[in-house]
Every structure is written in structure tokens, then in C-alpha cells.
Design brief:
With about 130 residues, the protein is an all-beta fold. The chain has no helices and eleven strands. The strands form two sheets. Strands 2, 4, 5, 6, 9, 10 and 11 form a seven-stranded mixed sheet that branches. The chain is globular, with a radius of gyration of 13 Å.
Amino acid sequence: QVQLVESGGGLVQAGDSLRLSCTVSGSTFDVSSMAWFRQAPGKDRDFVAALRGGGALTDYTDSVKGRFTVSISNAKTVVYLQMETLEPEDTAVYFCATDRRGGWSQRRFENVWNSWGQGTQVTVSS
């Protein structure tokens, strides 16, 4: 059974950077396809970024394009979300996910991903 543990969240000021990590363990399948979602207070959990093929293909929601970068370690045991020029609107709990049961075209849908971490809080002050 795969386990995901996020880390790297914190309280930062607008314009700062953070790098989130998601450590994968216990996997018996290919975890080269992974995603990040986020959930702001009182809102649904939304897609942020995803990768497949060990990072050969990536996708980002429009609001983070050019600011966030998703990548995975060579051993495919850690997936990163590098976040630059953070904005107060980026404040949320960030979750990583793997075990995509649908096709890549469905990557932005929460219910396609079957394994989730517990989340890490990112708070950006203005």
C-alpha cells in the first residue's frame, strides 16, 4: 500500500518561495504519474499540477503557470512542487496524489487519484 507524506509548507510573505516535497513509500507500482492539489478554507480541493513519465510531461492550472514547477526524483520516491512568487491566493492546504486510475486526460479531476497524503499548510501573507 502506497503512503504519501507531504512536507515543506509554512508561513511566508507574498513574493517568497517554498518547495513542497511528497515522499512516496510502500509502492508496488509505477509512481511516475503524480499530482498536486490544494484546498483553500471553505473551498473545494482544486488541481494545481501533475506530471507523468517521470516528469517528461507536466500540466499546471493557469493561476500557477510560470510560478510553480513540479518534478520528481530520479528514484521516483519524492515529488516536488517548487513555488515561486507566492501570492496570498496561494494560501491552502497542499496535497499530493498518485495511483491515477483514469487516463492522463482526466488528471485534473480529484476522483481519478486514489492515494493521497495528509496535506501541508501553505500560508502567504500580504
